[in-house]
Input
Amino acid sequence: MPRQIEDAIEAIGELKALDGICGKAAALVHRVTRTKVVKNGLSGTWLGHPLHPALSDLPIGAWVMASALDATAGTTGARAARRLVGLGLIAAVPTAAAGASDWSDTYGPTQRAGYVHAVSNTVGTALQAASWLARRRGYHGAGAALSGTGLAITLCAAYLGGHLSFVRGVGVNHAAFQEPVTEWTEVAPLSALSDDTPLKVTAGSVPVVLARHDGEIYALSSTCTHAGGPLDKGTVDRDGCIRCPWHGSLFRLADGKALRGPASVGEPCWDVKIDNARVYVRSATA
Ligand code: FES
Output
């Protein structure tokens, strides 16, 4: 990344003046997304993949194609370009909703940069809306100019969004780089386990959480896939799931499946065996 861009993004992250508005906006988003169906829908829990980055291809793709038509087809492509601008506007609605849900679970510099990402996208989208209206009234040249300007702002916002994911790790699976442990590994005496009380152990270099529920012993990786929260400090519910203490994601102990967002990726699951009153684990894929 060019140094100047890196410095600019760092400077955005240090804009503590944004914290007041970020806090209020995040609280509002939390209220709107507090139900399981809404949070799962917007997080991509049902898909097994974060939703926002997948959806963002739709408005950006539509607007890029609209501007490409403006540049190459002139008034011949005016009707198609207007449709593409409109399709991008429709696609921007769920894209923004999914992004707001993801953003509401970030903090500090990441949240400030995410806020600027959202405001920039809002401006870019407003320009596309103005473009659509101008095109509808027959002002193709003005519409093309508004679209081009909006697209340029949207692409800058997309760059910032990419930075949030690939540099700051928003939305990435935080358990992705754990090495599987293929050998049975002793991790704890059986006596250390209490019913429905998570216990942190380590297998190789991987933190693992053990939980005994309804007479069965389960093991999952203890680094939450959503943002790295400590599942061993979470709670086990009566349905045999463990809840992350950071943002409330719920994982089924039996197979690690994510049942409530914001996590969209399941937790790595471990095989468990008891031998001579000692607990052994190995990666379930072994
Ligand atoms: S770190 Fe966010 S739900 Fe676990």
